[in-house]
Amino acid sequence: MSAAMETEALSCPCASELDEVVAFHNGDMRAAIVTLLEDIRHLRHQLVLAEGAMSSGMTRGWRPSYDRD
User: Could you read off the pLDDT of 21-66 as tens digits, one per residue?
Assistant: First the structure.
């Protein structure tokens, strides 16, 4: 798979993925959104912890981005 195709696949969730998320929450869209927001919060916290554990030499000055470009 080319890099462009891979990026497109990651950035555009397919309908079945969305259906799975909603089905997991028994059709409750609000609960699905709350869970996804909690996941985002958790992953951002994990990114903060990883950033603190990495040396800037190991990453050659790279810093994580907390928002989408």
Answer: 999 999 999 999 999 999 999 999 998 888 887 776 666 777 777 7
Q: pTM of the predicted model, to two decimals? A: 0.62
CB 63 within 8 A of CB 51: yes
In a domain, 61, yes or no: no
> Amino acid identity of 53?
A
Q: For residue 29, what are the domain limits?
A: 8-53
Q: Determine the Cα–Cα distance for residues 21 and 25; give it in Å rounded to an integer.
A: 7
- Residue 50 makes CB contacts below 8 A (sequence gap 6+) with 64
pLDDT higher than threshold 60 for residue 1: no
Is 1 domain-assigned?
A: no
